[in-house]
Amino acid sequence: MKLLDIKNLRVYYFSEEGVVKAVDGVSLSLNKGETLGVVGESGCGKSTLGLSVLRLVPYPGKMVSGKIFYNGIDLLSLSDEEVRKLRGKEIAMIFQNPDVSLNPIMNIKEHLVEAILTHEEIDEREAVEKTEEILGKVGIPKNRINDYPHQFSGGMKQRIMIALALLLNPKLIIADEPTSSLDVLIQAKTLELLRNLKEEYGLSLILITHDFGVVFEESDRIAVMYAGHIIEIAKNTELYDKPLHPYTQALIKAVPTVTPEEQKLNYILGMPPSLLTPPKGCRFYARCKYAREICKFKEPKTATVGREHIVKCHLY
Ligand code: SF4
User: Fold this and answer.
1) Rounded-to-integer distance, Cα 220 and Cα 59, Å
2) Of 51, 88, 229, 231, which alpha carbon lies 20 to 30 A from 273's?
3) Residue 243 neighbours by CB distance under 10 Å
4) Domain for residue 46, yes or no?
5) How many domains does the chain have?
6) Does residue 133 fall inside a structural domain?
7) What is the whole-number distance in angstroms between the Cα of residue 70 and the centre of ligand 1?
8) What is the pTM of this model?
9) What distance in Å separates the CA atoms of residue 301 and residue 235, rounded to the nearest whole number?
10) Residue 294 domain flag
11) Which of 249, 294, 295 to mutate to test the pocket of ligand 1 (most atoms within 8 A of CB)?
C-alpha cells in the first residue's frame, strides 16, 4: 500500500542567473514499511526532492507543479500550519550535516525537549523522560543529556539527529546523506542503527545518498536520479544485476571493488548538464556511449520493463 505518491513534481530555483530546474517532472512512490533509496551524483536534485516532501524547499526555490500525496493527503494543498503539524509527527527528516542542524549554544536536552513541547501537550518532566528514553534507543547515555553538540563525536551527533527525527513517532523518515560525513566503521554502525529502529518503529524510509553501495545494501527499491530526472527505478537486486539505463550501468561499474582483477577505478566521463540550461533531448546524451540522433532532440519517455522496472531511455 502506498504511503507516499509523488506525481510529475517540478521544483525550480529562480536565481539571478536564471531558472534552475532541480526537480523536473519526477514521479515515484513509497510503499508502507519500505526503504526506497534515491541515488545520484551531487547536484542531481535528490536533496531538493526530499525537502519538497516536507515543503521545506528554501528560497528562491518553488514547487511549480505536480502533486505529493502522503497517506492520501495532498500535501501541496495544505496550509503552512497544517504542514507544520505534520512535520515530525508524520514525516521527519534526518539532515546531512549535524554541525549545521544542531544549535551550538543549546545542549541536547534543550534541542529535544523543545521539539517535544512544541508539538505535544505534556509537561517538561514527561518531555525529559521521553528525551532520555529516545537517547537510550540511539545509544547516547542519559548522563550526556546536558552536553553541547561540540562535546560529541561526529557519529554521536548523527545519532542525536536520528533521535530528533524519531522523537514524535513519525511514520516516514527521509534521511538525506545520513552517513556521508562519517568514517566507514561509524557509517556501518549508523546504518545498522537506522535499520534496527526502522524495524522497531515500523517506519518507512527514503534514503538519499550518492553512495551506490549504501543504497544497495539498505534499500528494497532504488530510484536513480540524474540531472533533475528519475531515470530508473527497480528492486535493489534487479537494478544491480540488470541495470537498464546507461547511466545506472556506468554508476554500478564505478563502485570500487577490492578483488585483485578489478583494481582499476572506473569513473563516468564528462559532467552532468547545467540545470539552468538542460539539453532538449536526453540529459545523459553527452556522456552516453549508446546515444543516437533521436536522443539529442527528444526527451525519452518513461517505460515499464517487466512488472515494475521503470526506465527513461530511448533504448526501451
Ligand atoms: Fe543514452 Fe539515448 Fe538512452 Fe539517453 S536516451 S541514455 S542518450 S541511449
Assistant:
1) 33
2) 51
3) 21
4) yes
5) 1
6) no
7) 32
8) 0.93
9) 20
10) yes
11) 295
